[in-house]
Design a protein that fits this description.
Layout: H1 2-19, E1 25-35, E2 49-62, E3 65-85, E4 91-111, E5 119-139, E6 153-167, E7 172-184, E8 191-194, E9 197-205
Antiparallel strand pairs: 1-2, 1-9, 2-3, 3-4, 3-8, 4-5, 5-6, 6-7, 7-8, 7-9
Length: 206
């Protein structure tokens, strides 16, 4: 199922190439992301900040519409992470770990001034996320900690994103984005780590 979703995202990105009014714009993003939910220990709006960077290409479809394939990497310092049971009923255990998350996504963008290099815009995105937790250790909190917590953990999930931005000129812009991924099998079988995040970044076209 996950492989089919990745293939669908790739096909949608390729579909925009022949429809584009002109060649793709290439750019990058750098900024800060603030983890929420389980990734921040389970306390909403009290997340720790991480650094994020990414690349994108943008295919204009005309009349302000565009497709934007993008790749982002976000790095969070060590901090508390709440891991809940698969049904979402209770906290299984709490751990401390560094977290890095890689996103591959396709955004639909609408530029309100009709062109991608000026003014406000909004985005809706669908993608896939890979999470890597390193240096993990158990902390107090939870009902059923694993017998042996792996120091390094990997998980993956679908990602949903929405956001808004402003292009100051043909080169520079700023963007605010909210993303949501629910990672499964984190540190033990039948677990979930909900990882919503707010991000604020500077965009630069090459």
């Amino acid at each position: 199922m996950h492989k089919r979703i990745i293939v669908l995202i790739q096909c949608l990105a390729l579909a925009g190439v022949p429809l584009a009014a002109e060649g793709p714009a290439l750019g990058g993003q750098i900024g800060l992301a603030q983890a929420q939910g389980d990734l921040s220990g389970g306390k909403w709006l009290r997340g720790r900040a991480g650094a994020t960077a990414g690349l994108y290409s943008l295919f204009e479809l005309g009349y302000g519409n565009a497709l934007r394939p993008r790749a982002d990497a976000t790095f969070y310092p060590a901090g508390p992470i709440a891991v809940i049971n698969g049904g979402g009923d209770y906290r299984r255990f709490t751990e401390t770990a560094k977290a890095s998350i890689l996103d591959l996504a396709l955004d639909y963008a609408f530029f309100m001034y009709g062109q991608h290099f000026e003014g406000p815009y909004v985005i809706l995105g669908l993608g896939y996320s890979w999470a890597s937790l390193t240096g993990a250790s158990l902390q107090p909190g939870g009902l059923a900690p694993p017998a042996a917590l792996p120091a390094s953990q990997r998980a993956r999930a679908l990602q949903y994103a929405l956001g808004a931005g402003w292009r100051f000129n043909a080169l520079l812009g700023a963007e605010f984005r909210f993303s949501q991924s629910n990672f499964r099998h984190v540190g033990d079988a039948d677990t979930i780590m909900k990882a919503p995040a707010f991000g604020l970044s500077l965009t630069v076209d090459f």
